[in-house]
Write a structure and sequence with these properties.
The complex is a heterotrimer. Chain A is mainly α. Chain A has one domain: MetI-like fold (Orthogonal Bundle). Helix content of chain A is 72%, strand content 1%. Chain A is built from 13 helices and two strands, in the order H-E-E-H-H-H-H-H-H-H-H-H-H-H-H. Chain A has a two-stranded antiparallel ribbon. By secondary structure, chain B is an alpha/beta fold. Chain B is built from 16 helices and twelve strands. In chain B, strands 2-1-3-12-6 form a five-stranded mixed beta sheet. Classes of the chains: A mainly alpha, B alpha/beta, C mainly alpha.
Chain lengths: 289, 432, 269
């Protein structure tokens, strides 16, 4: 019976797995082979040594800059965003809160907007004579050249990411909260726990599977960040805000195409995400026996 | 019960496969972008008010003698067009190519040399002696022509005459001058009117590239080796640019939209760019009649310096998947042979011909109200004949980006020579 | 009284974040009613150009065709992805085993490689199948995503095993348990997954741009980029197009958001 059930379980996984193998793994193997080749355009040869493209990355100043930028985004933006999303979801899950549908919609809306518009609006807002400087000026802050300086350009990109993706993550938490037995929260309240204690000791542990999901998702999304770097800051000034994926796209499509090198770069990204995801799974995927 | 489980499982398993298969038969059989019949050409281009409009007019003209002829024009922005070309070449699916596609002049060499299989020779598509050599050079590889030039990108200096007048100048004071003259006069204008004369995107090297080309210099030598280090014309261009920015007569902004905004909203009283910028200038309808066009200032003390340059511009390429005879004949009868075409597209789209015979047409001598009745297009055609050739090389984009990065560093206080050495090694790395 | 005061920080926090969320959207909406020149001057008041912008947009682009293509792609992707991925996520958790955990980890690898690296081999496959210009070529790669499978797997952890056992005792088949009991219980998760998948499919850009070559199968994001790609951009028209392109996702969210509302009980509580 168990054996039979186990087989049924595998059958449930089959369609999805088959598709992923065909659509992702087959091209991934081709990309792996490509990463061991050098040459321009369609004239490719096996690299000598085979890992030449990977060693080449170590000497690439632009790659190092984009690696640094990407990790700045990861370390600063992801924790802030997930914390905010969790707090917002928790507030919105309170049945006594008024106008919940309004708050929920308003906070979700940014991720429905196309990238082109949002980058245009953000660039306008953070222009030297834009709203943000006008607003800060009221408090006597001197105008900041937001997109013109490396640190502030990265900051604008992070603010953009927070704006667009916090509501997105909040949706997952809201859905997760639906699966939590409300009576456990009421019980904790009865025992005299305050709101923060309930949140921290009752809600968060039960949400752990979803928190893990969003953490893996955000890590993956940030390490593969392309849109914001490409459209919001164009990677500038001078590569100071360019992400790894943006550089990959430049190397593969916009400049003299060097697909072997681009493929090597993708595998570096893959390995970085995989390592971080593995750590997250080890910490977060423990089952309560 | 067990049966239903099995059936359900089988359905779940086969569903995606069935989908792929049904999609397979549902597709159009991959007839591709290239024309299926003898009278249709497929074209990739990107601007409905400019090059697509020009193509549509060319279609009408060609139809007068070939009534069955049609064009199927697909709108694709340049960045995406480049991505598509790369994808098709790399996956060797040449069958999906259109007959004709438009290529940025600066990217032409790169594409022909990396992916020769994308192109057919355009030898029969024009009499290339009727175009300025500086323009056909972009699309010529090993003495073979691969492109029919479309828009020129000839650089213009456009200024607000009312602002100049307020400071006691006319546009003649900005004609045939050097950059140091310009610097003095522009500072005077700034002091008297509070308006800078120029603006541009920080971290973009467009202005410097125009200065460089105006002296016939480039970032590569004849063999394609980068010459970013120890390049006197480049150093002079950067110095000139930095002086402009530091003295406030050149406003740096952070994006293209902001750049357009500076002159459309009247904060800045002029601009230097390819002639195609006149389209954006004219969106400021409230400034009609207050603009004038002249040539560029030239670099001081650089041998070969001129008052002429170019930025942008594009050429039509014939793909390897094309009906080459039809495509060649079409281009030869229109973009390389029809005064009527250029007479139509000039006033409506501001598309200035590269084709020299078109410049003799009366339409070019028509006064343009926005520019105070100046026949600017005739002037631009004259400028175009004097633009020095630009050696873009294959690695133009890499070199330009490296120089942009260097400029950002120099503006931030870094030493020019070492920043340029660094840019040189970045480009050498990319070429390695 | 104390209860009311305790709510104040919550409302303040929500208010500030909502303002932050909505301000750029307000700017977009207002811009759609202004001229290009006014947009560049950051005008914050509604103007009278809405109808002129609509006319210009309809004149310049085939909005109807793009909306249709985008909708077919997004709706098709969403329906198929929800079926395929929920079945898999259910299988991973309900029939949990060590081997399946390993498989999950392996499948996750598929989302970790940047798309730019796998696009060319993928293009080759779809070109060989004759699917260039087919909406299927856009839908198929998007229906089985490790992320969505993981979402269903993680959410299923809250699915009570007692129900499962009870249903088996009642003689329900394994698939019927999924279809009749699991699906209705997991409405909130399905709603979240639906919104996210629809949005992602609707906004997908690079792959559709490369595989959909013909004019008739342009999508809304392509149309928007086309509008900003010329030498002269009309920013009022651009913002209007963006507004139109954002509406369907918002509508889907509004339709499904009741599922996030507190107090809805699943089939079994």
């Amino acid at each position: 019976m168990d054996r039979r059930r186990n087989l049924t379980g595998w059958a449930f996984l089959l369609p999805a797995s088959l598709l992923i193998v065909l659509i992702s793994f087959v091209p991934m193997i081709q990309a792996l082979l490509l990463s061991l080749q050098t040459g321009r355009g369609t004239r490719l040869n096996w690299a000598d040594p085979l890992w030449y493209n990977y060693t080449r990355l170590l000497g690439d100043e632009i790659f190092k800059q984009t690696l640094f930028n990407t990790f700045v985004y990861l370390i600063i933006q992801v924790p802030i965003m997930l914390t905010l999303a969790l707090i917002l979801a928790n507030l919105l899950n309170n049945p006594r809160l008024r106008w919940r549908a309004f708050w929920r919609t308003a906070i979700f809306l940014p991720c429905a907007v196309s990238l082109v518009a949002y980058s245009l609006v953000f660039r306008t807002m953070f222009a030297t004579d834009g709203f943000v400087n006008d607003f800060l000026g009221m408090f006597g802050v001197a105008p900041v050249n937001w997109l013109g300086e490396p640190d502030t350009a990265r900051a604008v990109l992070i603010i953009g990411l927070l704006w667009r993706w916090t509501g997105f993550n909040m949706i997952f938490f809201l859905a997760g909260l639906q699966n939590i037995d409300r009576s456990t929260i009421e019980a904790a309240r009865m025992d005299g726990a305050n709101a923060f204690q309930v949140f921290w000791r009752v809600t968060v542990p039960q949400l752990r599977p979803i928190i893990l999901l969003t953490a893996i998702m955000s890590t993956n999304g940030t390490l593969q960040l392309f849109d914001e770097s490409w459209a919001l800051t164009r990677g500038g000034p001078a590569y100071a805000s360019m992400s790894m994926s943006h550089y990959l796209y430049e190397v593969s499509f916009q400049r003299n195409p060097n697909f072997g090198y681009g493929a090597a770069l993708s595998y570096v990204i893959l390995i970085l995400v995989a390592v971080l995801a593995f750590i997250q799974l080890r910490i977060g995927d423990k089952r309560d026996q | 019960m067990k049966r239903t489980t099995k059936i359900a499982t089988v359905v779940a398993m086969t569903l995606p496969v069935a989908l792929i298969l049904s999609g397979c038969s549902g597709g159009d059989g991959g007839s591709g972008g290239g024309s299926g019949d003898d009278n249709t050409l497929t074209v990739w281009a990107w601007d409905p008010n400019f090059n697509i409009y020009a193509m549509q007019e060319a279609e009408k003209i060609y139809q007068q003698d070939h009534p069955d002829f049609t064009l199927d024009i697909v709108e694709t922005p340049w960045d995406d067009l480049q991505t598509k070309l790369t994808t098709l070449a790399q996956s060797q699916e040449y069958g999906e190519l259109p007959d004709i596609f438009l290529v940025q002049n600066n990217a032409f060499q790169k594409n022909v040399i990396n992916y020769p299989d994308l192109f057919s020779e355009a030898t029969d598509a024009a009499d290339f002696s009727q175009f300025p050599q500086a323009v056909t050079d972009y699309s010529t590889v090993d003495a073979v022509n691969y492109g029919v030039p479309f828009d020129s990108g000839t650089a213009i200096g456009a200024y607000r005459t009312d602002v100049l007048a307020e400071a006691g100048y006319t546009v003649d004071d900005f004609t045939d001058i050097t950059w140091s003259d310009f610097q003095t006069k522009a500072e005077d204008v700034l002091a008297k009117t509070g308006k800078p004369l120029l603006s541009g995107q920080a971290g973009s090297s467009d202005t410097i590239m125009m200065m460089l080309q105006s002296a016939g210099a480039s970032l590569f030598d004849a063999d394609g080796n980068p010459t970013i280090s120890d390049n006197p014309a480049l150093e002079k261009s950067i110095e000139t640019y930095i002086d402009l920015v530091k003295s406030g007569v050149f406003t740096e902004v952070n994006s293209w939209d902001e750049y357009i905004g500076t002159f459309v909203n009247g904060a800045v009283a002029g601009t230097i760019n390819g002639v195609w910028i006149s389209g954006s200038l004219q969106t400021a309808t409230d400034q009609s009649g207050e603009w004038a066009v002249t040539n560029l200032p030239k670099l001081d003390g650089v041998s070969g310096a001129t008052n002429y340059s170019a930025n942008g511009g594009s050429s039509w390429a014939i793909s390897s998947n094309a009906n080459v005879d039809l495509a060649s004949d079409f281009l030869k009868s229109t973009f390389a042979g029809s005064t009527a075409l250029y007479d139509t597209i000039l006033p409506k789209a501001g598309a200035v011909a590269n084709w020299i015979p078109a410049g003799d047409s009366d339409v070019y001598a028509q006064p343009v109200d926005f520019f105070g009745g100046q026949p600017i297009y005739a002037d631009v055609v004259t400028f175009g004949a004097s633009v020095p050739s630009n050696n873009t090389g294959v690695y133009y984009y890499e070199a330009r980006d490296a120089v942009s990065a260097a400029i950002t560093k120099i503006m931030g206080g870094a030493d020019m020579a070492s920043a340029l050495d660094e840019a040189q090694s970045t480009v050498e790395f990319a070429m390695g | 009284m104390i209860n009311k005061l305790r709510g104040v920080p919550a409302y303040l926090f929500l208010g500030i974040w909502t303002l932050f969320s909505l301000f750029p959207l307000y700017f977009m909406a207002v811009s759609a009613t202004n001229t290009s020149q006014d947009v560049l001057a950051s005008r914050l008041l509604p103007g009278g150009e809405l109808f002129a912008n609509i006319a210009k947009l309809l004149d310049a682009q085939n909005v109807g065709a793009a909306m249709t293509s985008s909708f077919l792609i997004a709706a098709g992707t969403t329906v198929l992805a929800l079926i395929i991925c929920s079945i898999a996520g259910y299988g991973f958790e309900v029939y949990h085993s060590k081997g399946k955990d390993v498989l999950m980890g392996v499948l996750l690898l598929a989302m970790m490689i940047p798309f730019a690296a796998t696009m060319i081999p993928l293009f080759q496959v779809f070109a060989k199948l004759g699917l260039v210009n087919s909406l299927f070529a856009v839908i198929v790669p998007a229906i089985s995503t490790p992320l969505l499978i993981l979402l269903f797997r993680q959410s299923s952890r809250a699915f009570p095993t007692e129900i499962l056992e009870a249903a088996r005792v009642d003689g329900l088949s394994e698939f019927s348990i999924y279809a009749r009991i699991y699906v209705p219980t997991m409405r909130a998760t399905f709603a979240a997954a639906g919104v996210i998948t629809f949005m992602t499919a609707w906004n997908n850009y690079l792959w559709p741009r490369v595989i959909l070559i013909k004019n008739e199968v342009q999508t809304m994001p392509m149309l928007i980029v086309n509008l900003s790609a010329g030498y002269v951009t009309d920013y009022g028209v651009l913002m209007l197009a963006v507004l139109l392109a954002s509406l369907p996702t918002v509508v889907v969210f509004l339709l499904l958001q009741r599922q996030f509302a507190e107090g809805i009980t699943g089939a079994i509580k």
